[in-house]
Write a structure and sequence with these properties.
Length: 161
């Protein structure tokens, strides 16, 4: 897992970039597409599957990533709206964004459970658990990196004095 962690460091910088800079939705999509390819290579190395097990795994993985991509773009849109509204963030907008973020998190949990169940049937519970563990690790590292670049509500006003 350490080898995977080193690779993540480089890729996380790419993933955090759209949230810290002003980029278009199309640029964010391109970065996300590149991340998906790099992530697949990392998962392949980590899982170390071959033959029929690999074929079954990748079938489930590819279906998962298609659905996961939409949730990732939705999360990006929520964070983008937060950045766009940061200086004049109202209680109503903060509530809307927070509610959307909760729904996005719950949808991701539901998708990961669905993926786990499908993967468990395809490659067995140990390999399915191994994948979910790696997926959750990747997700946690990315969230920490992204969150570190997002100011807390009122943080900039306190700094400005």
């Amino acid at each position: 897992m350490k080898r995977v962690g080193v690779i993540f460091g480089v890729l996380i910088c790419l993933m955090a970039y759209p949230l810290q800079a002003q980029v278009s939705d199309e640029e964010a999509k391109l970065i996300q597409d590149a991340w998906g390819l790099d992530k697949k290579e990392m998962i392949d190395q980590y899982m170390g599957l071959s033959g029929e097990a690999a074929n079954s795994f990748w079938e489930v993985y590819d279906a998962y990533m298609i659905e996961r991509k939409d949730l990732g773009m939705d999360r990006y849109q929520i964070l983008k709206e937060y950045a766009e509204n940061y200086d004049g963030l109202s209680g109503e907008k903060a509530d809307e964004l927070t509610e959307r973020l909760f729904k996005n998190n719950m949808a991701l949990e539901k998708l990961q459970l669905k993926c786990y169940k499908r993967m468990k049937k395809a490659v067995g519970p140990l390999e399915a658990s191994k994948f979910i563990q790696a997926e959750r690790y990747i997700e946690s590292v990315i969230r920490i990196e992204v969150q570190s670049g997002i100011p807390f509500i009122d943080e900039l006003q306190q700094i400005r004095g």
